[in-house]
Amino acid sequence: MADAVVIGAGHNGLVAANLLADAGWQVTVLESTAHPGGAIRTAEVTAPGFHSDLYSAFYPLGFASPVLSGLGLEKYGLRWLRSPSVLSHVLPDGRTATLHSDVRRTADSVDLFAAGDGAAWQEMYDEWLRIGPSLVGALFRPFPPVRSALGLMRALGSSAELLRFVRFALLPVRRLGDERFGGEGARMLLAGNSLHTDLGPESAISGVFGWLLAMLGQEHGFPVPAGGAERLVDALVVRLEARGGVLRCAAPVRSVIVRDGRACGVRLADGDEVMARRAVLADVPAPVLYQQMLASRDLPPRLLQDLDNFEWDSATIKVDWALSSPVPWSDPAVSGSGTVHLGGDMDGLTRYAADLVTKTVPTNPFILFGQMAAADPSRCPPGSEVAWGYTHVPWRAGLSADVVAEQVGRVEAVIEQAAPGFGSRVIARHVAAPQDLERGNPSLVGGAINGGTSAMHQQLIFRPVPGLGRPETPIRGLYLASSSAHPGGGVHGGPGSNAATVALRRARPQGTLTAAGTDWTLRRLYR
Fold first, then answer.
1. Helix ranges, 343-472 (H)
2. Is the link from the previous residue into 377 a cis peptide, with omega within 30 of 0?
């Protein structure tokens, strides 16, 4: 018997397990697939010697996260690398805006689109340096993050500035770009980053997502683990096992065992039971936990009703390429960017988002593209390139193989337009349709990569359903530790850290009063 059982060895589950092990708990992590890491995995899927990141690839949030940095993973083999420039957004007319690690060079790039935008970018970055640390601290703490929120208020300086920041945080990225910049360059750097979520240019809070990633990129770059994304998982596993933690792969959990209203273990698909003295933490999507791993009799009916309204983010098609040489960009400035945004100006992104909302496969896709040798030449043979790109399609659209192939053709046509000769350099490609992504990682339900929409109606106290925005569940000793919980998707460890933090707090005698208060609130909420 363990003190805690963690369901799922995604990075959130491994973060939670490490924090519990740090506190002296005996921890067992159960992973349904043959490999730990969830949506972090590296493999040779195109050609020998080409190491592709099968899911996520670059980690500005992970590098900046106090959760991951606090684990000291560099002591366990993790090493971060960066490309010469951070990212480029290539417009359909061939013009390019580039985010450089030097803010002055970024300012020069966006100033080419409209005089004065460089100064406006510098001003935005100065604002970030003033409030960013408090904001990042608030983002990765259990909700409500009282201390970090007080720090943010102090950084803002007045209640009037706080109100202005709240308005800023709610803005769609199109409106934010229009208010702050005169040209398309800076606007598209923000808008392209906002589309790392499932939010379109007119969606509320898309502005703050674009701003957050752009400013993190400006400050830290878009770092990648040396040798492949999987090295991040390797470090988490080595750290956990050094503290006595146990990881079991190919051990799918069928159900959570609940007795007298408390989670006391799990039952595996083969019938084996693994018991937990103190807690069960679930790094699985909220609908999977509540609708598949728990009996309805153990849950409030209102919670199950709310889950019927849970909204997934858009599905994804991902392509990996082995290239005989670097990508032949028309604009040489793009060659140094590890990340490239392709396929749209602002109006084009709006049409792309509208297609997704109306369940239409976009005919002019937006592409998030990575060229990994720009940061880490060890990923492929000398002189070559290992590249990837993904685009979104409607969730559960039932795409046939022909439709997927047609969409891959559109993706490659967009790249070819910006880099004539790209196709002739393709040695091999590997295509992952939404169903393939889910097959490789069951938590990517329907090919959704963020554990649920990032829209305002499913954030903070509404994530995953209207409630406290915290990892507690109506079942004592059971905590939600996946990206379906606050603060949501991305590789940063926030949900896993929050679940472990609360589990540890509630296990202490002095935490009894707080625990009772939370239980009472949950019972009232889901009555």
1. 346-357, 401-418, 434-440
2. no
Give the tens place of pLDDT for each residue, 105-129: 999 999 999 999 999 999 999 999 9
Residue with tokens 């009894």: 512
Given the structure tokens 């991305």, which residue do they identify? 490
The amino acid present at 86, given as its one-letter code, is V
User: What is the pairing mode between strands 42-43 and 52-53?
Assistant: antiparallel
- Burial annotation 135-165 (CB, 10 A radius, 16+ → b, else e): bbbbbbbbbebeebbebbbebbeeeeeeeeb
Q: Is the dihedral of CA 321, 327, 330, 333 positive or negative?
A: positive
Q: How far apart are CA 110 and CA 101, in angstroms?
A: 14
The tens digit of pLDDT for each residue in 127-186 reads 999 998 888 887 887 766 666 667 777 888 788 888 999 999 999 999 999 999 999 999
End-to-end Cα, the chain, rounded Å: 33
pTM equals 0.94
Mean pLDDT, the chain, integer: 94
Domains and CATH numbers, the chain: 2-34+249-311+450-525 (3.50.50.60), 41-57+81-101+314-448 (3.30.519), 104-220 (no CATH)
Put residue 286 in one of left, alpha, beta given phi > 0 → left and psi -120 to 50 → alpha.
Answer: alpha
